[in-house]
């Protein structure tokens, strides 16, 4: 395990294993990884988006070499047990090379706790106000010093027996320092309130994600991006606020237009649903190249077997 503060020196060889905890059931030192990426000590954290979270797909995603796997619990039908098993699969099958980040469904205190208890970091969607951000931080952190009211899981990590990174601190304070919190700003209201949110809670929020799809929906605009003056004005205010508070930006870059990922410390660049969509071209190519059956050709099957194509 890398020494605290020197993790970035081992990333070129070990990847995110440099930031792993003593146990893969604990969250990685994701807060430090985000800060190191933001400060340019390592490259941006590159992620795989798991839109269809199941244990089998998680096992595959864990072997793709991503720095993190984004588990979309918000827009999937998996329950708490499946989400927990998915997180464990990501971090154990990857042997710590990939961190699990769970986008939770809403701001529910219990759901945020379930994801953190599983050993993941969390992404919380649609944070619009200071009050909502306070609730999210409260659900994320242990102890009033961190503005938290998270309940300690008595059978998850055992105080006094769980191995910790910093032996001078409790397991709860260690986990506070490990698991990252990313909030998603997805409306004009959220952008306008972001300055106040980061002024009050910036020490507990590790990065911000601009959700351009929901932002544009809230503005009555189509698509993920556009050049409309009102949209570009909102983006400029968002970026100016992050610079003011020295806070990492995060987002998606799926199209190969790398400019969308520039100056971001946490970038989702691939996903399972994109892989499925890519098969559309294969199906169309098959339609164009496989003719209708010709009953007069009696040797087709035999020829196929000779070529090893009929299994």
Using the 3D structure, state the CATH architecture. Alpha-Beta Barrel
Helical content stands at 25-40%
What is the number of strand segments?
A: 8
Strand order of the largest sheet: 1-2-3-4-5-6-7-8
- Under CATH at level 1, the class stands as Alpha Beta
CATH topology: TIM Barrel
Distance between the termini: 47 Å
Mean pLDDT: 92
Point out poorly predicted stretches: none
Structural class: alpha/beta
Discrete helix count: 13
Largest sheet: 8 strands, parallel, barrel
Determine the CATH superfamily: Phosphoenolpyruvate-binding domains
Assign an overall shape: globular
Q: Could you spell the SSE succession in H and E letters?
A: HHEHEHEHEHHEHEHHEEHHH
The total domain count is 1
- Rg value: 22 Å
The share of residues in extended strands comes to 5-15%
Structural notes for this entry:
- It is a single chain.
- By secondary structure, the protein is an alpha/beta fold.
- The protein starts with 10 loop residues before the first helix and ends in a 5-residue tail after the last helix.
- It has helices spanning 11-14, 30-38, 55-61, 80-93, 109-117, 130-140, 171-178, 188-201, 212-218, 229-245, 272-277, 279-289, 300-306, and strands at residues 45-50, 68-72, 99-103, 121-124, 181-185, 207-210, 249-252, 266-271.
- Helix 3 (55-61) packs parallel to helix 4 and helix 5 (109-117) packs parallel to helix 6 (130-140).
- The mean pLDDT is 92.
- The protein contains 13 helices and eight strands.
- Strands 1-2-3-4-5-6-7-8 form an eight-stranded parallel barrel, surrounded by seven helices.
- It has a single domain (7-271), classed as TIM Barrel.
- Strand 2 (68-72), helix 4 (80-93) and strand 3 (99-103) form a beta-alpha-beta unit.
- The protein is globular, with a radius of gyration of 22 Å.
- This is HpcH/HpaI aldolase/citrate lyase family protein.
- It comes from Coccidioides immitis (strain RS).
């Amino acid at each position: 395990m890398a020494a605290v503060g020197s993790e970035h020196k081992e990333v070129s060889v070990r990847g995110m294993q440099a930031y792993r905890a003593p146990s893969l059931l604990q969250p990685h030192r994701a807060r430090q990884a985000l800060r190191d990426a933001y400060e340019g000590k390592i490259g941006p954290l590159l992620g795989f988006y798991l839109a269809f979270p199941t244990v089998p797909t998680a096992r595959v995603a864990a072997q793709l070499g991503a720095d993190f796997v984004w588990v979309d619990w918000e827009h999937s039908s998996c329950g708490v047990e499946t989400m927990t098993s998915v997180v464990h699969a990501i971090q154990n099958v990857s042997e710590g090379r990939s961190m699990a980040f769970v986008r939770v469904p809403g701001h529910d205190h219990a759901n945020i706790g379930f994801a953190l208890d599983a050993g993941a970091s969390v992404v919380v969607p649609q944070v619009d106000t200071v009050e909502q951000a306070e609730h999210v931080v409260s659900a994320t952190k242990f102890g009033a010093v961190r503005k938290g009211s998270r309940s300690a899981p008595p059978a998850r990590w055992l105080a006094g027996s769980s191995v910790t990174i910093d032996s001078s601190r409790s397991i709860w304070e260690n986990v506070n320092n490990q698991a990252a919190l990313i909030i998603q700003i997805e409306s004009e209201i959220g952008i306008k309130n972001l300055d106040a949110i980061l002024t009050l809670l910036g020490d507990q929020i590790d990065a911000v994600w601009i959700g351009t799809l929901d932002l544009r929906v809230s503005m009555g605009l189509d698509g993920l991006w556009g050049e409309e003056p009102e949209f570009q004005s909102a983006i400029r205010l968002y970026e100016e606020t992050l610079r003011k508070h020295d806070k990492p930006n995060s987002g998606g870059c799926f199209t190969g237009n790398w400019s969308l990922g520039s100056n971001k410390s946490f970038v989702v660049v691939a996903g399972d649903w994109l892989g499925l969509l890519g098969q559309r071209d294969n199906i169309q190519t098959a339609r164009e190249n496989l003719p209708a059956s010709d009953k007069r050709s009696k040797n087709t099957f035999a020829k196929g077997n000779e070529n090893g194509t009929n299994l």
